[in-house]
Amino acid sequence: MSDTLREAAADLRHLLSRGYRRSSAVRFVADRYRLCRAERLALYRCVYPKEAAEAHLRKLVPAEDLRGAVMSIDGFNVLRTVHAALHGRPIYLCDDGFVRDISIGLRKPTFGDLVESLGLVIPCMCDLAPRSAVFVYDRPVSRSGELSKKTLELMGARGVPGTSKTSMRSDSEILSCGEVVATSDSVVIERVSKSFDLGGYVVSKILGRPPTKI
Questions:
Q1: What is the pLDDT of residue 103?
Q2: Looking at the domain assignment, is residue 39 inside a domain?
Q3: How many domains does the chain have?
Q4: Which residues lie below 8 Å from residue 76, measured CB to CB, with a gap of 6+?
Q5: pTM of the model
Q6: What are the tens digits of pLDDT across the range 64-101?
Q7: What would the mean pLDDT of 101-112 be, rounded to a whole number?
Q8: At what angle do helices 37-46 and 22-33 cross, to 10 degrees?
Q9: In a domain, 115, yes or no
Q10: Do the domain assignments include residue 89?
Q11: Residue 129 vs residues 52, 81, 135, 175, 185: alpha-carbon distances, Å
């Protein structure tokens, strides 16, 4: 990561800690440092004020705590992070301890891309050994029903207990389905008591690709 982006991130943390709105603060800092679009996205998705970062970190559970737990998985969120890492896109370890990509606005992963990522995620579920796992996909997204069926098929083949579904209100569904929610979506994280970074786990442990610390 460039020194310029590090300096910009430090300035943004300062502004956010003083109560400035994220969108305005990111725009101000990015314009000041003349950041490119990818760097702007990195700031927006990865930099948090200390209080918010610590609040998210307190909810982040280690992998060993998942054994015997009921998990709900934010399907598209997890698979898109894994896809980004598989295809060499930038992956960051954010201030709040979660791993995020900056692929927003780039070519969206195809159905085949997501199935490829799923092929890495499902074996991890065997290792994590939850009592039950529920994958939830946004129903309005193209081919989400097919992806949900493929997920259920792979879960059955690998003996992962649980189910997969689509929902028009996926965030609410995710929150209601498990004790631990697997996501890196900050909006969802703020509404749960326990979260696990499944995408980050696959990226680091399976792909062996350490994320860049922002």
A1: 82
A2: yes
A3: 2
A4: 114, 137, 138, 141, 144
A5: 0.94
A6: 999 999 999 999 999 999 999 999 999 999 999 999 99
A7: 84
A8: 140
A9: yes
A10: yes
A11: 30, 21, 15, 20, 23
